[in-house]
Amino acid sequence: MELPIENKEIVFLLADDHSIVRQGMALTINEIVPNAKIYQTSSLQQIVEEVQVKGIEIAIIDAHFPGGNSLHILPQIKSVNPDIKILIFSGLEEDLYALKYINAGANGYLSKLSEEEEVKWAIRSIIHKGKYVSAVVQNLLVQFANDPNAINPLSHLTKRELQIAEMYAEGYGNLEIANHLDIKQNTVSTIKKNIFDKLKIENLVELIDLIKTHHKI
């Protein structure tokens, strides 16, 4: 008779640059899968190598590392191991980022703001069904089916706002943008405020991240 899935030795990889997040997730996995084999890494660069060498079956990966987004390595992970199941566990806003990661190959997106029960549900769901669909993601999928543009927050910007947002992302300052576009510096400041308001962000770091995620793929 076959063992229930939780009694098997499932090989996990926890990839997050915060040790406390990995330790908490490891404890939760051990509660659900007592025989789990758990590897850990804090490095974005090591993830693909770990998957290749360690026979990882389920990878729980942060969306953002000091070295950049994990978005771009998801297709690599899948090409190294097409059967791997990937759960993104992230502090980035689910409604802005989840579908990007799922489209890139993730099997689920779990917010770090989730309650413990939701985290356990997500792990069980990835183990049993090979995917985890939160209520937020379900809602996004319905929105996306009705209006593919609704998912990309940059689609709310005007052409000029997007042009200026890109220039900020490339490292230009207000004065350089004003000179380049032949407009007043306070006009640039006003447009910058509009961009931040529309995207619900507070600083340039967040803007650069959004541009990288939604515009440069």
Automatic annotation (TrEMBL):
One Gene Ontology molecular-function label: DNA binding
GO biological process, one term: phosphorelay signal transduction system
UniProt key word Repeat: no
Signal sequence bounds: none
UniProt keyword terms in alphabetical order: DNA-binding, Phosphoprotein
Annotated source species: Chryseobacterium defluvii
Protein name: LuxR family two component transcriptional regulator
Xref: InterPro entries: CheY-like_superfamily, EvgA-like, NreC/VraR/RcsB-like_REC, Sig_transdc_resp-reg_C-effctor, Sig_transdc_resp-reg_receiver, Tscrpt_reg_LuxR_C, WH-like_DNA-bd_sf
Residues bearing PTM 4-aspartylphosphate: 62
Record-linked SMART domains: HTH_LUXR, REC
Record has Phosphoprotein as a keyword: yes
Annotated Response regulatory domain residues: 11-127
Occurrences of domain HTH luxR-type (ranges): 150-215
